[in-house]
């Protein structure tokens, strides 16, 4: 599309000298002959003349309907606009100015918007590129790099691990993906099966076998005190204690670690293939509840980029996995035991097979009419797991859960989602009984007291 870029000197041309290679075909309209010569020497289509005279525009326009970007000093703007309109009264004009222009067919673009939309993202991309270089340098000398996730990793962790391996240019042999736990939730198992992502289950001593260890969507403190300093941590969860890592990037403001890895890949100009795009898109969707919970502009931009690259048939298959019949019995038990107080639906599931089932049912029960909080607990092996969800416009879930359970176990989270994990021995040591009824009553009492405080 032919367009006119009007400026008294060659500022616009210096800002976007390669615009002619894009879908726009610019004609540079300048005032000084030396600027015309410089642009023409580089192959630009350019005309020169007084911008407040009609002659230069008669030479620049062909149809009189070409769109115009106008960037002139405020004192001359009215005169230049008058000359332009005398030649092309109906051409659409975008004026780069801080002052709103009240005229038909004229839109204004404040210079602050240029900084926000062009300069800001460029600086952020440069910063991300520097982070990538530092990360790569940290593990460059390692023959094998272990990429660690949390126990029972979720889609965000799995996708981030796959993305980090791609970013490092490694294979599953030189950079295996591992967890101390097992992948148990049906959607997560479907994800690794459909996308053919290898996840190893290891024990803590195995970390000594690797020259470098990187953690995604988790931090050393989350995996136990036995974990020493690692090489890399990339995570979007709050930093409860200083993360022991030589290189770390922790951004609690982001909705998903997958968003951070997507930015890494784009800054490093790494090609994102369909399988990885599908994994990252699902990671963002899962951690932000389909971009409705805690999603930021960065999450939306990353998802927009991935959406066109992902396999949506595979996404549908992952999101609708087979649900074990036993899970329906657990859900029925939880529904039967529910109670609603202070806008919170609370229920205890009893013993469950895997912790993600507790979180899955917390997501489901938040949809009950009139409920602002869903608090679901269950016993997994020798631990009490509590998952909390809220509607997003009430108190931060992480703060409430930390106040309610932080004295007896690991507790925290984000504004609209949080969890607590308490070992049964600590639960009993705090003076609480461990029967199903007692756990339900104690979880409710502790949570509601924290909510009121």
Termini, distance in Å?
Answer: 61 Å
- Name the overall outline: elongated
Largest sheet: 6 strands, parallel
Q: What integer is the average pLDDT?
A: 89
How much β-strand is present in the residues?
15-25%
Which structural class matches the secondary elements? alpha/beta
CATH class type of the largest domain: Alpha Beta
Task: Quickly count the domains.
Answer: 3
Work out the number of β strands: 18
Radius of gyration: 28 Å
Defining key terms:
Diaminopimelate Epimerase, Chain A, domain 1; Rossmann fold; inorganic pyrophosphatase (n-terminal core); 20% strand; 3 domains; six-stranded parallel β-sheet; 453 residues; alpha/beta; 18 strands
What this model shows, in words?
By secondary structure, the chain is α/β, with parallel strands linked by helices. It has three domains: 2-107, 3-Layer(aba) Sandwich (Rossmann fold); 123-319, inorganic pyrophosphatase (n-terminal core) (Alpha-Beta Complex), CATH 3.90.1640; 325-452, Diaminopimelate Epimerase, Chain A, domain 1 (Roll), CATH 3.10.310. The protein has 16 helices and 18 strands. It has helices at residues 11-15, 33-41, 54-60, 74-87, 111-139, 155-167, 186-194, 257-267, 274-287, 297-307, 312-319, 325-336, 356-365, 397-405, 424-429, 436-452; strands spanning 2-7, 25-30, 46-48, 68-71, 93-96, 106-109, 145-148, 177-179, 200-201, 212-216, 230-235, 245-250, 339-341, 344-351, 373-380, 383-390, 410-413, 417-423. A six-stranded parallel sheet has the order 3-2-1-4-5-6, with helices on both faces. The protein has a six-stranded parallel sheet with strand order 9-8-7-10-11-12. Helix 6 runs parallel beside helix 8 (257-267). The chain is elongated.
């Amino acid at each position: 599309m032919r367009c006119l870029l009007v400026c008294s000197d060659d500022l616009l041309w210096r800002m976007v000298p390669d615009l002619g290679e894009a879908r726009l075909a610019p004609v540079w309209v300048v005032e000084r002959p030396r600027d015309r010569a410089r642009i023409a020497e580089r192959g630009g289509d350019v005309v020169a003349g007084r911008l407040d005279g009609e002659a230069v525009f008669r030479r620049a326009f062909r149809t009189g309907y070409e769109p115009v970007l106008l960037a002139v000093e405020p004192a001359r703007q009215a005169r230049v606009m008058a000359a332009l309109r005398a030649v092309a009264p109906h051409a659409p004009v975008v004026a780069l100015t801080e002052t709103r222009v009240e005229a038909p067919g004229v839109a204004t673009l404040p210079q602050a918007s240029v900084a926000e939309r062009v300069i800001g993202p460029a600086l952020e991309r440069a910063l991300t590129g520097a982070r990538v270089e530092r990360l790569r340098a940290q593990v460059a000398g390692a023959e094998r790099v272990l990429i660690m996730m949390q126990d029972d990793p979720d889609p965000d962790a799995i996708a981030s691990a796959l993305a980090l391996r791609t970013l490092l240019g490694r294979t599953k042999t030189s950079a295996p993906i591992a967890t101390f736990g097992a992948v148990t939730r049906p959607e997560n198992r479907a994800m690794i099966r459909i996308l053919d992502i290898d996840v190893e289950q290891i024990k803590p001593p195995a970390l000594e076998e690797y020259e470098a260890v990187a953690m995604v969507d988790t931090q050393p403190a989350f995996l136990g005190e036995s974990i020493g300093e690692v090489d890399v941590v990339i995570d979007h969860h709050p930093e409860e204690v200083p993360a022991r890592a030589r290189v770390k990037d922790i951004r609690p403001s982001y909705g998903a670690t997958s968003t951070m890895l997507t930015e890494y890949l784009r800054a490093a100009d790494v090609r994102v293939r369909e399988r990885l795009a599908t994994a990252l898109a699902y990671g963002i969707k899962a951690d932000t509840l389909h971009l409705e919970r805690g999603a930021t502009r960065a999450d939306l931009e990353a998802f927009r980029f991935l959406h066109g690259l992902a396999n949506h048939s595979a996404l549908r298959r992952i999101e609708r996995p087979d649900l074990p019949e036993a899970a329906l019995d657990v859900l029925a038990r939880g529904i039967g035991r529910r109670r609603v107080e202070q806008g919170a639906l609370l229920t205890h599931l009893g013993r469950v097979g895997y912790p993600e089932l507790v979180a899955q049912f917390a997501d489901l029960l938040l949809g009950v009419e009139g409920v602002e909080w869903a608090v679901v607990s269950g016993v997994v092996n020798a631990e009490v797991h509590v998952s909390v969800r809220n509607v997003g416009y009430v108190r931060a879930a992480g703060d409430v859960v930390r106040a309610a359970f932080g004295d007896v176990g690991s507790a925290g989270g984000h504004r609209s989602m949080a969890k607590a994990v308490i070992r049964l021995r600590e639960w009993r040591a705090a003076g609480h009984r461990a029967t199903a009824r007692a756990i339900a009553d104690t979880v409710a009492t502790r949570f509601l007291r924290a909510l009121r405080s």
